[in-house]
Task: structure prediction
Amino acid sequence: VFTGKNIISDGSLIGLFKCDLWYVHNQPDHSFFSKFAPLLDGATTEIKGYVRVDLQIFTKGDVVKDPPPRKDDLEINQNLILPPKVNPFRPVYQYQLKIYAADGLPQMNANLLANVKKAFSNKLSDMADPFVEVSFAGLTAKTPVIKNTYQPEFNTLITFTEFFPPLCRRIKIQLKDSDMTTTELIGTHFIDMNDISDKAERRKGGFMPTFGPSWVNLYGSTRDYSVSEEHIDLNNGLKLLGKEEIFQLFATFYEASMLPKKLGDSPVQFEIVIGEYGFLMKDLVEKKKKDQSEDDDKLYSESKAFVQSVTAPVKPLAPEKIYYYVPFGSDKPCTHIKFPFEDQRRRHYNFSILKKIYSILADLSDFVKGQVITLHGEGYSQVFISKHLEISRCALQNVIKLHGSSRHQNYHGVRKTTPCDDRYLKSIVQASPHTSSSRVTQLAMERGINISARNVRRCLSTEFKLHARRPAKKPFLTKKLLQAPVKFCHDMKYKTAEWWTTVMFTNESTFQQLCGSGYNYVCQPVGERLNPKYNLKTVKHPPSVMVWGAISAKGRCYLS
Result:
């Protein structure tokens, strides 16, 4: 909205409003009617007024609907153009962007112009005059032009005034080259507001737009300059112009086998390649050197002694003349390449840290928490649960720890037994505490109760507090029983040599009187460990007996 034109001026800006097409397209029928758009002048945080508009987006085949009848008594605050689920009283903020520097810019002028400048100034300068232009919410601002440099330092603060959350989702940053007649676009980068902010309330985790300081990658056409400028349209974003560092790729070859027979008559070499670096083709090497800047050529020549992309030729061998192998032996060949590559280490470090924090503090939904508790209570491992529900192990362990999860608790899953069935299970173990869970399951199945041994143990422990424990052993050892083994050993110790000459054969063996049941667990209440009802008799009816016997020349040998 502008002021009226007159002879002296074309009018000044009162205020403007801008929104992305996605907002209008997301409305019902891709349109809205009789909505008020707030106007801002871009310099102050005050609203300059409202304009009432109708906006529609039509595509091929859409049916155009007539607007509803207009009403003059509409409330402005109730009919504002707003983002979805946002309070109508949006605050106005100042968005500040700090442009620090740029690096690795391509040549933007022809060599003829460079020679002309060299003739006048007697020195060869960089063929680029860069500046940065930023556009957001209908407003555009730019930094000063830095002359004759490929590494400009801008150190400029750009400020925009706009609502939060805004109706414009992207900030466009363009790096341009200034010429005498026109400006040329070098590269473009977009910052999405949804990636650097959250419109939720601060107490619910929302935060204002925050980004950097960080290098951003610019995308444009190829780096080689031509007067025809046939690829100038690509400067809106295809070719990566990122900041690079020198890295080294190292590889060791341990063995090489099952080579085809056609390679057996000539020596074999192995080569590692990354991108265009590592090839031995002369034309590719010359092209690479031509495209590189002087600094890259110098660095590449200095580190050339540390570049070896091909192994030494070795003739393969074939024991059976079918497949060949390379006899490396104990000396394994190594290859290494130094190459420029975009340095993303800091970004990866920060991403890993944030991912770790998110996995620990992730707010899982109540449904997912219930699934975790149920699966863990049924005995599934944490690895299976994390893969099945696609959540991190840290978040899984936090849920288990927070809810005091245990495999012997019932987490309100689907009951498989009725209260009457539970009382029947209790009556079995109360009548015979030494009955195993497998036997209880068998008795329940005979009665028509479909239940597993795991659920039997969980039901008895959670519903009736009858935990399966190892029983206390109750020995029935009288004074006579304690003295009898000692007397037996004493008699055998003092047998004479004459007596032992009559013994032809002696041996000992174990006889099982009862079938072994492993650990003899018993279902007992808490505090009833020493109750005779839940004790295990160990002497009166032992499960096994050790018997020692002998055969003598005079017949049966006595044992005591």
